[in-house]
Specification:
The protein contains twelve helices and 15 strands. The structure holds uridine-5'-diphosphate-4-deoxy-4-fluoro-alpha-D-galactose.
């Protein structure tokens, strides 16, 4: 079956967003709706809240069928088939998946099943309905201990150190093989660096269950008084202050990267030349839409240390945040930040917001919603 064409206006394009009630998913729904797309969310609410979608409606003013929601897991083939039958889906942005690195070591079966098998089911049902346009949430984790910094998309991938990273890396391969086997597929792999911050309204943001694993939600919960002090995992790395350096990116910038990827797939931006892509770029289809596999880093190109982040958050919230140096965390690399030239040149996308803004927006969300969506 021929692939659905993306050579049309946003208003006529319907995007299935799996995991659309989650942190990155909800922000992406806002940007898609702002750009006039129709959106169908499939989310099992296992690590998210439907309240986030009410907030998306408030932010965008969209209160009609331009935004639809199905509570379902992507492993549920029948539920997915029903979604494709009830909506004329053109493209998929696939966020749904478990994402806790440490937990994935304890629960490999759950991670492989949900993330890996779930994506296979999704692609299979999509293909049955003639949908072969997919943007996949990948991660900088696929680079492992990076061979060079800043990390370009050509940087060799390394064996993942945990099942979560393994699923990302394996799914990149699966999606690439789909195109190799059937040149109708149009795939974008977006390798995220460290998404933080929140929508400037303070209405949507990150709402982790239990004690946060990641730095920013942890710092935010110290700032709001829910946790006592930040543990800084190692201060003897070869960095400017000894603490680990990461490329933090505002979640709204990241969300906009997905909209840019859809425009790119539709042939609306970029050159798509194989030499500028360095990945698999097929000849565009007769309608100008792309075919192939595009790989893009989404980061800012700027590295910040753990202490840089704590101090930026202190400025945002106006308080001193207690911290304590602890041993290094297993599996952490010293420095990790992106080269973002390819996304700029091809997608016409660059991150707009700096660390101060990420912390200011993150603090607004946290202070207005100290218990996340639970009390909404
Ligand atoms: N850190 C602390 N204290 C904490 C939490 C984190 O000092 O309580 C440090 C870490 O050691 C690291 C930095 O803060 O130096 C960032 O840690 P995060 O856990 O926030 O993020 P990671 O860079 O470890 O992981 C992120 C994503 C993963 C993804 C990985 C890929 O959370 O999903 O990037 O690079 F796999």
């Amino acid at each position: 079956m021929a692939n659905k064409s993306l050579a049309k206006d946003h208003a006529d394009t319907c995007v299935l967003v799996t995991g659309g009630a989650g942190f990155i998913g909800s922000h992406t729904c806002v940007e898609l709706l702002n750009q006039g797309y129709r959106v169908v969310v499939v989310d099992d609410l296992s690590n998210s809240s439907e309240v986030a979608l009410d907030r998306v409606r408030r932010i965008t003013g969209v209160d009609d069928d331009r935004l639809a929601f199905y509570e379902a897991n992507v492993l549920d083939r029948e539920a997915l088939a029903q979604v494709f039958e009830e909506h004329d889906i053109d493209a998929i942005i696939h966020f749904a998946g478990f994402k806790a690195v440490g937990e994935s070591v304890q629960k490999p079966l759950e991670y492989y099943w949900n993330n890996f098998a779930g994506t296979l089911v999704l692609c299979d049902v999509a293909r049955d309905h003639g949908v072969k346009n997919i943007v996949f949430s990948s991660s900088a984790t696929v680079y492992g201990e990076p061979e060079f910094i800043p990390i370009t998309e050509d940087c060799p991938k390394h064996e993942a150190t945990n099942p979560y990273g393994q699923t990302k890396s394996m799914l990149e391969q699966v999606l690439t093989d789909l195109y190799v086997g059937d040149g109708e597929w149009n795939v974008v792999l977006l390798r995220y660096f460290n998404p933080i911050g929140a929508h400037e309204s303070g209405l949507i943001g990150e709402d982790p269950k239990g004690i946060p694993n990641n730095l920013l939600p942890y710092v935010a919960q110290v700032a709001v008084g829910k946790l006592e002090r930040v543990g800084v995992f190692g201060d003897d790395y070869p960095t400017h202050d000894g603490t680990g350096v990461r490329d933090y990116i505002h979640v709204v910038d990241l969300a906009r990267g997905h909209v840019a990827a859809l425009d790119w797939m539709g042939g609306k931006v970029g050159t798509g030349k194989a030499d500028t892509l360095g990945t698999l770029a097929g000849e565009p289809a007769a309608d100008g839409t792309r075919r192939g596999v595009g790989i893009f880093n989404l980061g800012t190109g700027t590295g910040s240390s753990v202490l840089d982040v704590i101090h930026a958050f202190e400025r945002a919230c106006g308080k001193t945040l207690p911290y304590e140096v602890k041993p290094r965390r297993a599996g952490d690399v010293a420095v990790n930040y992106a080269a973002c030239d390819k996304a700029r040149e091809e997608l016409g996308w660059t991150a707009q917001y700096d660390l101060e803004r990420m912390c200011a927006d993150g603090w607004r969300w946290q202070s207005q919603n100290p218990d996340g969506y639970a009390t909404a």
